[in-house]
Amino acid sequence: KAGVTQTPRYLIKTRGQQVTLSCSPISGHRSVSWYQQTPGQGLQFLFEYFSETQRNKGNFPGRFSGRQFSNSRSEMNVSTLELGDSALYLCASSLEQRQGWYEQYFGPGTRLTVT
Amino acid sequence: ELKVEQNPLFLSMQEGKNYTIYCNYSTTSDRLYWYRQDPGKSLESLFVLLSNGAVKQEGRLMASLDTKARLSTLHITAAVHDLSATYFCAVDSRDDKIIFGKGTRLHILP
Fold first, then answer.
1. Is the pLDDT score of A2 beyond 90?
2. Are A29 and A50 within 8 A, CB to CB?
3. B67: β partners
4. Which chain B residues touch A if contact means CB-CB below 8 Å?
5. B15 and B80 Cβ atoms separated by less than 8 Å
């Protein structure tokens, strides 16, 4: 079974630009979560989508947004990029379990550098 | 607000030795995860702990969960160089967000 894929893997953008990152979950997984990883702040939860609906959101400004399509693929968008947005962005997919817990499978990440 | 603390944050140890990484969390939760991350790579799921007293083992790694103490441990037995990585614990908060610890960077010396 193919794993979680993320595109692009590396990206360099300039301050003020906007960027869209893509995530394809494992086949059959309906939940997609996004995380930002930086050396200073560690791993921080951005948002989670399930069946095309944002189910949860972390403490990030409105410049960070996302969406999920009917095939469970997800995109996240960052507008008006700032230097501090430079990070590894990780996507994780999970198969919703009836008991309410789920194991997440992470993609390889997109390394975003803002100059 | 749920806070997750790992210690130590850095650990350098000799091959063959045993050691324990601790993960404390601040509010009630009964779902805890351990992940491994190699440099430049993504996160690999190691263990999912769902109930008080849960213990899981895989090779030289063993994880346990004490929900009353709000503590999980990741024990390394007879460490080998291949276990060098950063280990993260993550806890499900009551509002279904997963909060990660800062990670423990483990370096195993031959």
1. no
2. no
3. none
4. 31, 33, 35, 41-45, 48, 50, 88, 90, 92, 95-103
5. yes
